[in-house]
UniProtKB/TrEMBL annotation:
CDD domains referenced in this protein's UniProt entry, alphabetically: DHDPS-like
First and last residue of the signal peptide: none
DNA repair as UniProt keyword: no
Keywords: Lyase
UniProt-listed Pfam families: DHDPS
Protein name: Dihydrodipicolinate synthase family protein
Length: 313
């Protein structure tokens, strides 16, 4: 019996990522990971997800993948918390095998990316998604479309996928520019659209997004959830907070991205800046991590620009 699979109208809100802490020898620090899971299940987040970009799904063994998700599923079931499992991989076969093994854990949804060695035609996208959805059934699928993906989809492509893949309930996308708002509103009526956390108030105001797999929640999950509730009750107040959040990202995070720090490095930095989530900033070889001096500097800026994100417990 599967536990309340998500639907397009129930996939919404602020979801927090599971970050994988590494020891200096690149092994996973499982005791610290356990602390991180324990912390996240006690927050007010709408749910938790594993093996997104911040979970470094692309740099794990399959034994590690299984253990990470067994730990998450056990804790979420015990505490009755919603969770999704990222079954993404650059290889379509490995992604399919991850779903086959993790299906018994009964997540509320699986997240996948398109195979990422070659760009895919629409016919190949359909073939991939049909088999993924069939294997996952009755657990639904959320398609993750990072900005750096080789396969680029238009709104019409996404509508076509929605028509042909009944198990596809949502997408996670990168930035949306104002010229695409009208098309995204139409898409958000067909499936749940998740957008970057620091743009979520705009997404709610413009009716282009239903929620976020939130980078902002890395700083403070409960503050991110409180901000979401404000957006729903007073969107203009939510926009004022977004202005401050985006100021922080523009001044402190985007410059680091331009210096070659990856999204997982920045998400781990944000968690260290917030000081709430038990984790560390270390990425597994060969990727570059933020250091302690950067954490101290960015934390000072965050406390100045976003003081409320540190006060909320």
């Amino acid at each position: 019996m599967f536990a309340n699979p998500l639907q397009p109208n129930t996939l919404k809100g602020v979801w927090g990522t599971l970050q994988i802490p590494f020891n200096t020898d690149d092994t996973i620090d499982y005791p610290l990971l356990n602390e991180g899971i324990d912390f996240l299940v006690r927050t007010s987040l709408h749910g938790i997800y594993s093996n997104g970009t911040a979970g470094e799904f692309y740099n794990q063994t399959e034994v590690e993948f299984d253990k990470i998700n067994e730990m998450l599923a056990e804790r979420c079931k015990r505490t009755e918390r919603a969770f999704q499992i990222g079954a993404s991989h650059m290889s379509p076969i490995i992604s399919l095998e991850r779903i086959r093994r993790a299906k018994a854990l009964n997540p509320q949804a699986f997240q996948v990316i398109f195979p990422d060695w070659l760009p895919m035609t629409i016919e190949e996208q359909i073939l991939f998604m049909i088999k993924i959805a069939e294997e996952a059934n009755p657990i639904p699928i959320v398609l993750y479309l990072p900005g750096h993906a080789k396969t680029k989809l238009s709104v019409k492509d996404l509508e076509y996928l929605s028509d042909h893949i009944p198990g596809l309930i949502g997408i996670k996308i990168a930035m949306i520019t104002p010229d695409r708002y009208a098309d995204m509103r139409k898409l958000n009526q067909r499936m749940s659209v998740f957008i970057p956390g620091h743009h979520l108030a705009t997404g709610i105001k413009e009716k282009i997004g239903s929620g976020s797999y939130s980078n902002v929640a890395c700083i403070n999950p409960d503050a991110a959830r409180k901000w979401y509730d404000i957006m729903l009750s007073d969107v203009e107040r939510g926009m004022l907070i977004e202005n401050m959040v985006r100021k922080f990202f523009d001044e402190e995070i985007i410059p680091l991205a331009s210096r070659g720090y990856s999204d997982p490095a920045l998400d781990k930095l944000l968690a260290a800046v917030g000081g709430k989530i038990p984790a560390n900033t270390r990425l597994r070889w060969p990727y570059k991590s933020a250091d302690d001096k950067q954490v101290v500097a960015v934390r000072a800026a965050a406390r100045k620009i976003l003081p409320d994100f540190f006060d909320i417990q």
